[in-house]
Predict the structure.
Amino acid sequence: MDRLEKAQEAIGIIATKDQTSLFPFLPPEIMRDIATQRGINRLKIKQLKGAFGDFANKLVNVLVDSEGAFVEGGKANRFQWTEASQLNGLNILVIFVKSESTPEGVNTLRLALRGWYEEVHVGYAEEEVLEEVFKDAPTLVPAKEVVVDGRALGPALLRFFQLVFSRKQDKKLKLTFRGCNLKDCPNIITFRNHAITAFKNGTIPTCLFDESWPSLSLEELKRLLDFTDFQPVYEEANLCFNIKVVNANTFDALMTDVGVTKVELDNKSEPSIYQVDKPNFTVQISWKASCHQIRVKLLKRK
């Protein structure tokens, strides 16, 4: 557990025991982390006395897209950022990156990645735009969710995801990859494999690939389900991907081969469920034969 995770754990204990008298002594970045968490009662937080209450009252929710930034509920009134200091006191709900960006809008997007943001959605955009937005992105990626169009995975985004895959993320981080064309991104299979490795390393708790992404072969699936040296990090982790077309008997045989048992359900409809218990975690596998999608769920055992 690194220093940031230890601090977050400590803050969670303080909040649970309602020792809010300690809040005013926390540094601004920790204040912002607490105030922007989902499930936090913002009304009570704002009633706190001292620096923390003042900070929570001043915090403003904004969104950012290719045309600029705007306060939540005020899409018609956009503004641009020219320096990182303008992000003070702002909680960025979502960053939308897409094509047709003005130079000012691109600069605002680039600065937004230096702020505290909850979600990033990257659509199909020109590589020049992505290069400018994601160049020199900070090593801290505070997002809880990142959604990416696979056709946008050029050099700029690949560098960004190297940061995402290389550090332990918040337990709520969810990666979703949509839209994929092998012709547009010849490195897509390598990237997918890096994402799966990050999942197995405990770096990414939720990683979802839609049906347009390349399928895993049965041999690749077999290697993925080898959890010999795996140590669970999160209470629950989920990976969703496609496999090449196989019939039920072939899939059942593969599951038996890797030591996974089919769960007999009263409802015989899809998906089929398979499970294996390890010393300190459980592996659950859901397979939908109709769409050839698999979901691997890892459940930490207490």
